[in-house]
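TL;DR need structure tokens for one chain.
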Amino acid sequence: MHILIIYGSLEGQTKIISDRIAVILEDKGHEVTALPDSQAPAGPVLEQFDAAIVGGPIHMGKFPKPVQQFVTTHRDWLNKVPGAFFTVCMAINSKRPGSREQAIRYGNDFLTQSAWRPRLSATFAGAVKYTQYDFITRFIMKMISKREGGSTDTTHDHEYTDWDSVAQFAEEFHSALVSASREHTDPISS
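>> reply
TL;DR here they are.
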């Protein structure tokens, strides 16, 4: 199958996650096109894809606007093909259950509001990239990390992505594609 992955990535971690998913799916024999939300295809071009994955990070409680616009604009097509959605949110890695629940709720609320019904959704922790932040952002992220049980060492970046969970997500999506393909090609029994 030809799979389209559209991702929003503000600091680069969502791109890294998307690229990892693409490699796993390519290893399963799929053709994968992974693009940032700014390069998302539209209209008839979408019809060349058999499935779609969309991913985006949460910043200040929201997904990037281009990710929201892509899903809203192409919801009918997304609901027609096998799809998956993932959220990148540091709160999923929190030691506080309420924060983890909120991280999952961001994705669930987005899907409800957009009326997109992907077959699979997940939430992954991203990275705290202290070395890329300005002074104020670094200070805010340090305070959030302290509250949530993450590292407050600002001398280097900290990656929290659970790569086993990312691989499991890709494997589950592959299995869903295989099932969808069988459903599509199996004769209907009476």
